[in-house]
Amino acid sequence: MDKVGNVGKTDEANAAGKPKVVLGVSGGIAAYKACELLRRLTESGHDVRVVPTESALHFVGAATWSALSGHPVSTEVWSDVHEVPHVRIGQHADLVIVAPATADMLAKAAHGLADDLLTNTLLTARCPVVFAPAMHTEMWEHPATQENVATLRRRGALVVEPAVGRLTGVDTGKGRFPEPAELFEVVRRVLARGGRPEQDLAGRHVVVSAGGTREPLDPVRFLGNRSSGKQGYALARSAAARGARVTLLAANTALPDPAGVDIVPVGTAVQLREAVLKAAADADAVVMAAAVADFRPETYATGKIKKKDGEAPPSITLVRNPDILAEIAGERPRPGQVVVGFAAETDDVLANGRAKLARKGCDLLVVNEVGERKTFGSEQNEAIVLGADGSETPVPYGPKEDLADTIWDLVVQRLA
């Protein structure tokens, strides 16, 4: 096995045609989690070159990175100088991701320092660059770190917001390394966009609702719908991969939190309305993908409603829920705000969609046909996006991420 410092040669035949990803690993305790990200990348057909810092090797050894990636590992620029690795690695990459990215690494990248192989690679990369920070909350919130993050984002890098949760020791807060499975989705979405380095939603705040509201009847029952939230989560992931600050209003979902997304859990339509109005105050775009219950029980039974022999079941009186989409489209709390709605229809799909678009007053309406075996819970979707300007954009049957990217393409056009 090659020792640290011996870069060696890759198997060009095996790597041909595979997306080339550089996984930079800096010296944080979360370095061990990058092994899972590396495994997902290699198993999905990516050619991954791991470039750790010297500090990172205190947490995970070079032998592990070599075995998992199939490439020798080096930390400094003096190995195999004739191959000019400090230039070639970055030049040949389709994407560079630094995971975890410590406060020290963010500072070096922002100021163009180059004292090892990874920082040299960052300077020579002309492909999309993604940073996945992981550190204690105080370090993440320090003005120096925030200024470095702002600098990197301004230059076009995607800096994923760290997660909130358990840190090292007993500390809890923002700064946790995002789940490797969700970071993998970020990489996949960035590469799926053709490797375009520009972040066309950078500096934008977008709000996405997902899932389905539930209106309680009694302590054990509710009125709800079949929405899984997968389309809304796809929208959130896509927006984050395009550089947006994303607030995801999640109504009764059971999905992993997308990397770099702020999650606000909600239950009922009234709770969702309150969350939307609050989050939309400074949002550039609001996408209402959640399935909102049109009605709720007029009264809530504090005890379980029980059947009684010989008696008819009790009647339930329903009242209307607030029309959140129409309200937010009519108020537009921020000038130039783009509002997107969804119309789940079972018949006369286009006719009903056009009528709803005019009635709600939103800029775009995503219309699709739904049913017990259509759309809900599926990984695929098919839709037509109607515009208030009379436009129609059909999206053929395919992954929900494809529909999400089409929606954001249309939103970006209107924001511009």
Automatic annotation (TrEMBL):
Highest taxon listed in the record's lineage: Bacteria
Protein name (Swiss-Prot/TrEMBL): Coenzyme A biosynthesis bifunctional protein CoaBC
Residues covered by the Flavoprotein domain: 20-188
UniProt organism field: Streptomyces alboflavus
Cofactor note: Binds 1 FMN per subunit.
Keyword Manganese: no
Protein family: In the C-terminal section; belongs to the PPC synthetase family.
Region of interest (Phosphopantothenate--cysteine ligase), ranges: 206-416
